[in-house]
Specification:
The chain is 31% helix and 23% strand. The chain is an alpha+beta fold.
């Protein structure tokens, strides 16, 4: 048996931050492939089924969902990842009310433009309000109110004011479906930037777009950036970010020569069938030299999920509000949105195992490590319980703080608990089975069923080496998955 004479650091009584699986609010799993094998059915979504069946969300009404504990952890991590990137580009986080005076929307003309999609309501005094799908009116009114306090160090020739928030939005969808993909209540990150010169707008636009690309790359998403219509938002320039998905309701065309994309909204419906590379490249300003055969070749058509949208608004909103700066300048705007809850589901739609198991990006997995002790009454039971206490103390106090889930349901077999761990998308499991007789623990990479053994020489009770080794395994694995050749070599060892 391992030398478990623990040092004082692990003998001190303290509140552990790991969580026990038996206490987690998760529905009973029923793996039914017939419920998830409907990718070609436009009325259903694999990712929606996974999120509901595996205990991440629960529908509370048409277009409304409750985030269960697992889903809330994933959502919070997604928000933290986005917040970190927004702060890196000098974004200042605020929080605006979800309820807006409808008079503001009438002032900009969007009350009528939004039509039935805008939730409208009246208070007891018969005053009209709306639930905000976006916040251009409120944030522009806010900047106008404080414009006399804004210096050139805040909005100047080389400086822009960048305000953002992450919170709930509302849209009265006529046919909500696909869970978080098309809902009436949704989480969004929206940033609003204010400038006194067009050059600065363009620079900020490019900077925010690069930040978006960093976010999507961290989430392992194969995205497309497409030139798009400004729609009811207005302005002069817009791009959409998409993830390919058969269940997606957005459509883009992509040039096979230059890989540039354009939203279907920018193309005359009558030209869809006859669209070729030449006409697409003219729209996207492609500079590639195309031969005659390439000119006649049809462009690639894709169904997608929109996960982000960026706009240069010009004075579309600022002209309705009196913003008096020190300089007599025309204040212009940009706005930038990421559908946070939709982004979460897009990660599952584009990256899952067998249409049943979510393969979460490491940064937003609900837990990074699960510990699975031996079954109750087995020969390994007593030893594994001692190891559980040691491992949780060690991991909780090191690199995996708040990232450890202990599956303490020891009346179940190890195999059943491994399946449950895979169903919620925990990337790694530490299995304390028969191998502990040989003073070893088993590490399982859940999404690929790859196993590795750590021997006693790497499980040192007097250091945090085991935690460091596990962390290295995590980092190495996700690095290798980005390189298919390296990953396949590792998988076959």
């Amino acid at each position: 048996m391992m030398n478990l004479c623990l040092p004082k650091i692990y003998q001190v009584s303290s509140r552990n931050v790991h969580f026990n699986r038996s206490s987690l609010l998760v529905p009973n799993y029923k793996i039914n492939k017939s419920k998830t094998e409907f990718r070609d059915n436009e009325t259903n979504s694999i990712s929606h089924a996974i999120l509901e069946n595996n205990g991440f969300i629960c529908e509370s009404g048409p277009g409304f969902s409750t985030f269960l504990p697992l889903g809330k952890r994933v959502l919070n991590k997604t928000i933290s990842l986005i917040r970190e990137e927004m702060n890196k580009i000098d974004g200042q986080e605020i929080e605006m009310s979800c309820v807006s005076d409808l008079a503001l929307w009438s002032k900009t003309g969007r009350n009528s433009l939004m039509g039935h999609e805008l939730f409208r309501l009246r208070d007891r005094k018969d005053k009209e309000y709306c639930l905000c799908p976006t916040h251009e009116e409120i944030v522009t009114s806010l900047v106008s109110k404080y414009s006399k306090s804004i210096s050139s160090h805040c909005i100047g020739d080389k400086k822009s004011l960048r305000l953002y928030q992450i919170g709930k939005k509302y849209r009265d969808e006529s046919r909500p479906k696909h869970g978080l993909l098309r809902s009436r209540e949704f989480y969004m990150k929206d940033m609003y930037t204010f400038h006194i010169c067009e050059k600065n707008v363009e620079q900020t636009y490019d900077e925010v777009c690069r930040s978006y690309e960093t976010i999507f790359e961290k989430l392992n998403l194969n995205y497309n950036k497409a030139l798009a219509s400004v729609g009811s938002m207005g302005g002069r320039k817009s791009h959409e970010y998409h993830v390919n998905a058969s269940v997606g309701e957005d459509k883009i065309f992509t040039c096979k020569k230059c890989s540039q994309s354009i939203s279907i909204d920018l193309i005359d419906a009558e030209k869809h069938q006859n669209l070729n590379q030449k006409s697409l490249c003219q729209v996207t300003n492609c500079n590639k030299n195309l031969n005659q055969n390439e000119l006649d070749e049809k462009v690639e058509f894709k169904k997608c999920i929109e996960i982000g949208h960026t706009f240069i608004l010009g004075d579309r909103y600022t002209k309705y509000f009196n913003i008096n700066l020190e300089k007599d300048s025309n204040v212009v705007m940009g706005c930038y949105g990421i559908g946070v809850s939709r982004l979460l589901q897009a990660c599952v739609e584009s990256n899952n195992v067998e249409n049943i198991y979510p393969n979460w990006p490491l940064d937003i997995a609900p837990y990074k490590v699960a510990i699975i002790p031996a079954k109750l009454g087995s020969q390994e039971d007593e030893r594994s319980q001692i190891l559980v206490k040691y491992l949780t103390n060690m991991l909780d106090s090191s690199v995996f703080k708040d990232e450890v889930l202990v599956d303490d349901r020891n009346w179940m077999t190890i195999g059943s608990r491994l399946i449950d761990t895979k169903l919620i998308g925990v990337p790694f499991s530490i299995v304390l089975g028969k191998c502990i007789h040989d003073e070893q623990i088993e590490i399982v990479i859940n999404s690929d069923s790859i196993k590795s053994i750590l021997g006693k020489e790497r499980i040192n009770c007097h250091s945090r080496e085991t935690a460091i080794v596990l962390k290295q395994l995590v980092n190495d694995y996700y690095y290798m998955k980005k390189d298919n050749k390296l990953f396949n070599y590792f998988k076959n060892i």
